[in-house]
Amino acid sequence: MTANNLPNLMEISPFAYSVVMLYSVILIKVFTGYLASHEPLQFFRLFCDQLAKKVNKSKNTDRQRFISGLIAILVSLTPLVIILWLFEAFVEATWLWQGFLLYLALGSLQLGKTSKEIAKLIVANKNFEAKQLLNPWLLRNTDQLSSLGLAKSCIEMLLLRAVQNLFTISLIFLLFGPLTALVCRLLIEMHYSWNNKQKSFQPFGDSIAFIVNIIQWLPSRIFSLILLFGCIGKNFVLFYRLNRHYFFQLNNSYVLNLFALSLEVKLGGVAMYQNIKLRKASYNDHGRQPQATDIIHASKRISQVFYFCFLFLALLTLFIYSFNINR
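Above: the chain's sequence. Below: its structure in token form.
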């Protein structure tokens, strides 16, 4: 499949076109990730940080801060979306522009490699180096984390980043296109910057947290169900019963609890944000504390879900493409 064939493929089968585009961008991101570590949306994060400093005033009432959070979302996104939407009309190679937007929207594909390095450092009792490597990916304070805390934090980070920045964005791209996928990724980045687990962003970050929970609800359930079917023959029914009461909750409890059960470890619990202890929900309390080796197991479980999705999409694309050709 060459670049010149992409417009023709779009006419024959838009779904096949989207899948080929997704796979191509993923391959490019993997290749560029090995060449140099980079975060395309780093400048947007800096913008969000500076904007919050201007409008998120501690002297304001909770209602004023909540409204400020809503306005900040509109101010950040509206001009950018309009510019990107209008600019597409001036780009002759539409597929190139769409690939660029998708490249920006997808999260890092190097977290599996990073997690393995963190696991090695924990095993070698180099907790300080492990904290330095993990810290950019976390909101919580890592200074006081033990090796068990580092392993638990790394596993949760791996799972949530994979669900939010890769699985959710990929699904939205396939359903609604690259611009919508990029908008959703920008909303997720706002959520990271203005997370309401941090006291300074309460209730400023409540609205963006709600929006992101809506966006990721269906993708996270699909991801979880694929993960659950991977447990067939090993406590499948038990895991389903223990997890079903989380299904309709508008948070990450469903996927976190199922992941904890599948790894047979504890996740969640107490965490420090801006030096304030926050008691979060805990998952699989009867499991053992996670070890460094569980980070590797977690990375493999997540990869298995993505491999299954890639294979399923490839087979579905071939079927749809063949059907359209022979029609």
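The mean pLDDT is 90.
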